[in-house]
Amino acid sequence: MEKAKCECGHVNPYGTVICESCGKPFFEEEKALLNMRYEGVARRSQTYNKTMIDKVWNFFSSVKVGIWLIVVTLLASSIGTIFPQEMYIPPTANPTFFYEAEYGAIGKIYYLLGFHDLYNSWWYMLLIAALGVSLIICSLDRVVPLHRALKTQRVTRHESFLQRQRVHGVSNVDDSDETIEQAQQILKEKKYNLFEENGNIVAEKGRFSRWGPYVNHIGLIIFLIGCMLRFFPGMYVDENIWVREGETVVISGTDGEFFLRNDQFIVDFYDDTDERFQDALVRAGSPIVRKYQTSATLFQRIDDGVVGREPELVEVARHDIRVNDPFKFEGYALYQYAFKQNEISEMSFELEENETGERFGRIDVSTYDPETIYDLGNGYKVEVIEYFPDFYFDDDRTPASQSRIPNNPAFIFKIFTPEIEEGEISFVGIQTNQDINGENTHRLRFVDIEMNHVTNLVVRKDYTLGILMVGGVIFMVGLVQGMYWTHRRIWLQKVNDEIWVSAHTNKNWYGLKKDIEAVVSKTELTMPIDSVEEEEKKS
Amino acid sequence: MDQLSQLSSNLLLIAFFLYLAATIFFAVSVTGKKFKNKAGEEKNIAGLLGYSSSIIALLFALGYFVTRWIVAGHAPVSNLFEYTTFLGIMMSLAFVILYPIYKTNVLGLFTMPIVMLIIAYASMFPREVSPLIPALQSIWLKIHVITTALGQGILAIGFAGGLIYLLRVIDFKKNDKQVKAIEFVMYSMISIVGYILISSIFSGLNYEAPFAYVDEKGMEAEVVYHLPPLVGPNEAVPLTDEQMTPFFNVHPNIKSADLNTVIWSLFTGLVLYYLVRLITKRKIGELLQPLLKGVSPQAADEISYRAIAIGFPIFTLGGLIFAMIWAQIAWTRFWAWDPKEVWALITFLFYAAYLHLRLSRGWHGEKSAWLCVIGFAIIMFNLIFVNLVIAGLHSYA
Ligand code: HEM
Question: Where exactly are the structural domains of chain A?
């Protein structure tokens, strides 16, 4: 591929539009303003278009394509908010029916098209991935040549380069060296960097802001990579534990190394006599929670962790876990997530003779771990034959348990008395006490119940957070760098007996012109013309 | 405590009238050419007075903010009234920062009424101090909300600049798509005036129309309308004799009272809009255009772009980054695809597209101004619609 040799002697890469060194435009078509984007450098995407790789490269390096990707992602994302996503429908609802039942035919279509889980769909992921690829290629395509061009630029510019800048003017002054010297002084005060060559100068400021977009794109890429790492095992733990008050459980996701004891769980409501919030509390109609808190103690297992052996634990730390105040340890974090109040922890019964009402002792049955035999002495004994923590009738109309959680505890007891040695069977649950054979002489009368609070904690470990944070910080740095600073250049050049003033900025022309005004007001230079403004005045 | 809370409301009220004063001063400074001829420098003074009023208004508004913070014990950005008011205040702050750079009085003439409109709109929501549920009790939430509102306030100046540009350059004689679109924007803003007007009238009359109805779960429920019911809730039964019967009842999934309010607002807006057109025999945009004669379109374009260039990073920081930090701490995950989050992402992507279109595809002037209008519409949509209709984690209701 041939290189473009400029009359100033600089050899430019093939595809260059404006000489990197002296700024001579290679295409002299009209007198229109120069397109200063990327300094007119040769970019790979504009130069090669032969192989498959070239084509892919060119596709993704196009900003037009990039914008389309952004817009399509935007539109797709908005579709996902029309109806609630799968994760927000009631946990018991079956999505297959939920959307149709709730939203009719449109809901059904929504579900069939997979919009109910849009953000996890393959095509949404693909869209994000394409955005990432586009970011990388597009940035590489531009940053390398742009960097070279800004580094090799010379002070003295070709006349047509100067003429074809948006801000350009010609001044006749008495002493051009003197004027340039004065201008230099003023621009220095304005924090411009000055470069001189043959008495011509270029004052430049904020070049680093040109790297802003690339820095922010890098941040964005790092962020996207961080998001992708989440799909690799080991990077990310998301577990969920229920812990009853007083109970110690192993923390899932920690390989059995850590245990947690729930010392106390409290729910605290806003005081409805609090004047400040009275109106709001009345409007809400029900109490508003002020605080959920699990006071927890963390233990670490110090034995070798053989299965079945009682673990040897040492206390490591204590923390009051609240919403917005997780318990952090060893890269893990425990979050207060949900709770269940008033779970039945113990039911108490008294053994009673049906006829006389005489009582023969009391048993306290734990709903978590009932004993098999409760001996009341004097030949009175109760055996737990079967226990259903979460009782219901299954499909065959036989008693069964839905879960191991004591939501609805029920027992089959066998009662032994000195008279009846083979025992009498009864079925006892909440608000039910059935005599299975219909001829029992004794029964267990329900007398007391103990409740317990259960807290629900989310266990998380997320090694990607650090990467995301780095990505986010770099992104913000790049954003600020590119948006809050601008790259301004003012050329002052002696041409014949005149001084030509031309200026360029990548944004904020208003600020640039104010800088020039400061120079003009104190020197013999005249204000250069902003051709865009000029155009406007004409029309 | 009660006194302080009274003081807080009064400060906001005073601020509101100062914004009005600023509007009037800016109007004089823009139209007051005649004054200038007689009294020389008068014109500049009106602009200066306008700017001073807006600064004093901002100070009073911040006074409201601080006193209310003291009363509530938490930053007053936790319900719709508080957040929307704060957005208006932040827009005026953005104006106060940007005005000295460009010194365009027209910007004040457009920004101040929008600020007033936002604050008046906010005051239609329940104004009581609400207690914070545990998830909202976080310093990160305050940082997130305050930064986001500031970002949105600055982006809103971009909208004002875009509007100025369009009203300046559009040729109203053509009656083409652009004219219709800009008239629609005007009508939308008038509808907000309509909403404030009609709600105030009926609340002044203490109007109430209670209904018994069947809600989306099939349960019996009651709802009280504060505007005459044009549409009723599902299987509505009026609970008083004198109230008007709705024309029809809606599906239980739709919040009928809100829909009713929207219909009333649009209708009142329409009446106001045509009233103005009937009296003046002009389109709204046409009425405003003479005010903008002295404005350089190119300068309006630059101001709106500058506002967006400044607002975009702040919005990104507050609306996405701080939001993620807070979500990670409060909800255990930094991103949950909650509608409000998704719409913040959409806002971000939209303005990113705007910047790329401007930078690389040369979308300046009209196209760019329309994008500013759409961007602001997205922000408002997120504030109003997503909060009220699509309930999620962030729902204040
Ligand atoms: C959501 C994703 C993106 C964000 C947030 C983003 C952000 C930005 C920002 C803030 C700028 C600076 C704009 C200005 O200074 O006015 C920029 C510039 C740019 N972006 Fe992106 N961008 C994204 C995606 C892309 C994609 C996919 C492409 C590729 C097709 C791309 C190509 C460019 C280019 C070529 C520039 C101009 C660089 C220059 O002037 O030197 N961007 N981007």
Answer: 29-154, 210-232+471-484, 342-455
